[in-house]
Every structure is written in C-alpha cells, then in structure tokens.
Structure to design on (280 residues):
C-alpha cells in the first residue's frame, strides 16, 4: 500500500489575505518560502518602507505593497520587524486585524503580553523564535500561542513557519528564554567552534587558509551527518572515537572538568538570564 505523498505546496489553498510586516532578511526568507510552498502572490500584502527589488517585483504578480485606501482584514499577519521598531510599527496593523485574524511574531524578546497590548483586544497571537539558518530554509523555530489561538490557527502558524525550517511548540512562554539561548543564539556557538578549530589548527602548524577550510567543511559536514542520521549526537560522537586514539585524547580534554559541556551549560544559562532581563 502506497503512502500518500506529503503536500509540498501547503499554502496553495491559503484562505484570505496574508500580511507581512517587515521584509528584511528574516521576513524576506519567510516570503520566499511561502511562495515556494504555493502561496498565491495575489493574497499577499507586504508592509515595508524600504522594499528590495524582489519584493517590488511581486506587485507585477498581484501582491500589494504598502497598500493604501480600503484595507481587507487578514487571515494571518506575520510580524518580522526589529524588536526596537515594534512600538512604532505595530499600530499600522490594526486595520488588518479582525475577529479571526492570527498574528505571528518572530520578534526576539517581545512577549505575548507586549503583543496583546499592542494589537487589538482578543487577537489570537503566536510568539515564535526562529534562528539564522532560516535564510536557507534550514532553521528551527519554536512557537508559543496565547489562549486565543485555535487548533486551526495553530496549524496555519505551523505551515507559515515551516517555510524557513522545522517547527516546535511549547505551551509555557517562560521557556522561550531558554529556547532563545539554545537555538536562537546557537548558530553563534557553532560558528565560534569553527573559529576556534581554525585557530587551533594554525597553532598546530597548518596554514590559515587550510585550517579555515578544514574547520568549515568539518563543521558543515558533521552537521549534515547529524541532520541525516537517525542516531543521536552522543552515539555519533562515540562512533568517531576509537579507544586510546587521537579523538579520545582530544575528548579527554574537552569533556574533562571545566570543559565543553560545563562551558556550554554556563553560556546557555547566561543567555537565558539575559533574555529574561531584556523581556522585563
């Protein structure tokens, strides 16, 4: 018996109008993902004071850019402006919000309480935290709904957020600070790993160019192996480590007292605390 194929165009039948507030790097990545997943440009409204050429070109396909005059209420609104711009930017959304409108925010640090005050009363809101691999549709986003979000709206939010990668949900907004510390800031930790490996390779005698290339390809290839494998990270690590070998000698240092695990635990705890401070 053949399994039905997964729908690779889940937004083909998007009902009503989708509004994107902010078409910077992350907003543009989402927009490109929506179009790839079947969204009809004629159902799209983009609010962006400095649109790039690709966004301007969408108007030839029926998209509305900085629409004026009569405004139709939206099925969903995605808020992708910088957090510091939110107080000035969000009031422009009021005409688009109806009783059944879903608002999805990907602004770092802006809480559900903030969004509920900034948007019309009773709005269904999802707070989401993506990360920068979203730029190549390989990110991961964690989403948290307020009490107004229905099951149908949650599915819709998942479809919209899946345009930039995987989607996970939490019901407790307090966890979003830890999410930000782990996956939101996490790409920086991986890039630091590649940077440190490069510097260590140079210290061991390699040329800067070769060390950088080896570090880049090792981190990228290992990440792809982890992505494709059914094995967990610990098992993959063990599979590389021969008893008494070179990898074991290195891991004895990295996994020793004050080593990699302890440093990352402290780092993520520090980022979590800072997230709470910024959120007030």
């Amino acid at each position: 018996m053949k399994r039905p194929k997964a729908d690779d165009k889940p937004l083909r039948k998007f009902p009503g109008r989708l509004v994107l507030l902010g078409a910077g790097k992350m907003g543009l990545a989402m927009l490109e993902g929506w179009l790839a997943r079947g969204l009809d440009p004629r159902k799209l409204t983009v609010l962006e004071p400095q649109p790039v050429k690709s966004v301007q070109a969408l108007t030839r396909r029926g998209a509305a850019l900085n629409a004026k005059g009569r405004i139709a209420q939206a099925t969903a609104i995605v808020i992708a402006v910088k957090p510091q711009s939110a107080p000035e930017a969000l009031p422009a959304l009021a005409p688009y919000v109806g009783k059944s409108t879903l608002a999805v925010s990907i602004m770092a640090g802006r809480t559900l309480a903030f969004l509920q005050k900034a948007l019309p009363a009773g709005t269904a809101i999802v707070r989401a935290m993506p990360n920068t691999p979203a730029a190549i549709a390989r990110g991961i986003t964690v989403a948290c709904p307020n009490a107004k979000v229905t099951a149908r709206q949650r599915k819709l939010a998942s479809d919209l957020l899946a345009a930039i990668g995987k989607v996970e949900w939490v019901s407790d907004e307090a966890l979003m600070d830890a999410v930000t510390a782990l996956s939101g800031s996490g790409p920086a930790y991986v890039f630091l790993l590649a940077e440190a490996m490069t510097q260590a390779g140079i210290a061991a005698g390699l040329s800067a160019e070769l060390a950088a290339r080896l570090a880049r390809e090792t981190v990228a290839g290992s990440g792809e192996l982890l992505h494709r494998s059914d094995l967990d990270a610990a098992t993959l690590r063990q599979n590389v480590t021969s008893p008494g070998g070179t990898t074991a000698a290195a891991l004895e240092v990295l996994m020793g007292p004050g080593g990699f695990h302890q440093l990352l635990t402290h780092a993520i705890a520090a980022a979590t605390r800072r997230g709470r401070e910024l959120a007030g």
